[in-house]
Amino acid sequence: MSTIEQTSPGRSDEAGTDSAVAIVVPRTSSTEKILRILVPVAMLVIGIVAWHFTVVINNIPKYILPTPVDVVMSLWNDWPTLLPALLVTLRITFTALILALVGGVAMAILLVQSKWIELALFPYAVILQVTPVIAIAPLLLIYVPDTQAVLLIIAFLVAFFPILSNMVAGLKSVDHNLLNLYDLYGASRWQTLIYLKLPASLPYFMAGLRIAGGLALIAAVVAEFAAGTAGQGSGLAFRLLESQYRLNIPRLFAALILLTGTGIAIFGLTSFIAWLSLHRWHESALRREN
Amino acid sequence: MRGVSKVFSNGTLALKDMTLDVERGEFLSLLGPSGCGKSTALRIIAGLGSASSGTIDWPSSTINSRGLPQGDIGFVFQEPTLMPWETVFGNVYLPLRLTGVSKAEARPRIMEMLASVGLADFADNYPRELSGGMKMRVSIARALVTKPKLLLMDEPFAALDEITRQKLNDDVLRLWKQSGVTVIFVTHSVFESVYLSNRIVVMKARPGQVYADLPLANSGERTTEYRTSEEYRAATHEVSTALHNAIHAGGGTH
Q1: Domain residue limits, chain B
Q2: Do A55 and A101 fall into the same domain?
Q3: Contacts of residue A178 in chain B, CB cutoff 8 Å?
Q4: Number of domain units in chain A
Q5: Euclidean distance between CA atoms B93 and B97, whole angstroms
Q6: Could you report the per-residue pLDDT of B37-56, keeping only the tens digit for each?
Q7: pTM of the entire structure?
């Protein structure tokens, strides 16, 4: 395929180049590496131990504050009820997030195509964004017969806007000289979008994704509080309320832990995706070297 | 590039009735005080802004829909203007990619181009890993990879230090001689313009106009010795005087 021979570092000197510069990778000492993990983990363990002994020493009843052991027991014993609820919440969160990603990006691309489209859709965007989405839940419950669909719509709307506004900002903040360059070479709109605008707005998209990921979970829970579900299709929010009514506080904590775990997993996943796509070139994913 | 002439003026009168013929294979410097419209003129030649009146005539036969000779112009901006998400290779590949050349087909041309600017070893590096001078060389390689007939440079080395700048000046001269490309080089440095070009067009501000057109006789080998020669000093003096007068002429109408 290529007829060019491999150039050795010495050869480039003839063309008057800087000889290959060694790029030094900053190294953290192994002690610091261990401490980096140890310090937060230790703090967490201290917190849990303190919680346990506070409950035990003060003899706090289980229906007010359970010990960590009670919570773990509940997590284990109530797993058959909690797991389906977790799956329902996860399904709503991720479906909403994926729809928001597709919709937000598509909408942003449409908006930046012409300032007239943007102006025309501007009032709707503002109205939808400033209205607390959860407040339309009662209305949605009337229009949409399926409660699950209502939850999905609310979670979608909440996750949609951070992605839309970040994407619009990203698509608009492309280096003008690069746009000129694409013009100069007669690039089509499509080429400019695919090769220039989308990659350039990737950091903005990733910021939007991280916000939207967290918000989708919050919205899935809050929407379930507002809309209310029961029986087979109920999510973790319903189990939270149910546990509260029954004063089954250990199970309430267990459900909370599952939600926290889901939140952490979403944050970790979105951060990892951001790192994966940006670490080669973008400042936000780089370690400072000085 | 025979007979490129244009006459135009616009609202803020950045340029007024500017006429300029550029010969094929010339190294022409546009020199002038800041705000004299030299960058504007360059952008209009590149088709990045349209003239409010006047025309640009190209001798080239293939003119695209925007009135520019297809694939015949390379442009180097004031900043390197590289895509940070692409490697050096990817950045130089861009002009070819936009015209539908496959990566495999483009590879030998890109590697050859990178070798000629001394960056063959850095093809897989990202722009952030390069120094300012190296980034600029990537930018030059990108402008030349389509083998354009006309290379436009808009104060490309203004932000670089003196040593890097001289090195790049030598590189540009060498590439110019090798490729026979016509160069229009915008600068505000008298020394740079005298060192590089065989014709200097001095412009004056308010309104932007050609003030003086100075051909430089010597088109011989320009080496480090030339920088300290009497010939260089004399030419510098002549151009400096013209520039000085241009600044006064510009200020006088204000």
Answers
A1: 1-72+150-254, 85-147
A2: no
A3: 81, 83
A4: 2
A5: 6
A6: 778 888 888 877 776 677 77
A7: 0.80
Give B38 to chain A, closest Cα distance, Å.
17
- Structure tokens, A234: 């109920």
Residues A79 and A41 in one domain: no
A9 belongs to a structural domain: no
What is the mean pLDDT of the segment spanning A254-274? 93
A165, A50: one domain: no
What is the value of ipTM here, to two decimals?
A: 0.82
Q: Which structural domain, as residue segments, surrounds residue A112?
A: 67-285
Cβ contact B249:B204 at 8 Å: yes
Q: Which of A23, A191, A281 sits opposite B98 (nearest CB)?
A: A191
Question: From the CA of B21, how many Å to the nearest CA of chain A?
Answer: 21
Whether A132 and A254 share a structural domain:
yes
Q: Which pLDDT value is given to residue B103?
A: 87
The answer to the question of residue A163 being in a domain is yes
Chain A residue with minimal CA distance to B167? A16
Q: Cis bond leading into A203, ω under 30°?
A: no
Claim to verify: residue A123 and residue A254 sit in the same structural domain:
yes
User: pLDDT digits over B140-197, tens only?
Assistant: 999 999 888 889 998 888 878 888 888 888 888 888 888 888 888 888 888 778 888 8
Pick the CATH number of B1-72+150-254 from 3.30.70.2860, 3.30.300.30, 3.40.50.300, 2.40.160.40: 3.40.50.300
Instruction: Give CB contacts under 8 A, 24+ apart, made by A264-270.
Output: A266/A93, A266/A213, A266/A214, A266/A216, A266/A217, A267/A210, A267/A213, A267/A214, A269/A213, A270/A206, A270/A209, A270/A210, A270/A213
Is A12 among the domain residues?
no
Which residues of chain A from 168 to 227 reach within 8 Å of chain B, CB to CB? 175, 177-178, 180-187, 191, 195-196, 199-200, 202
Q: Do A177 and B128 touch (CB under 8 A)?
A: no
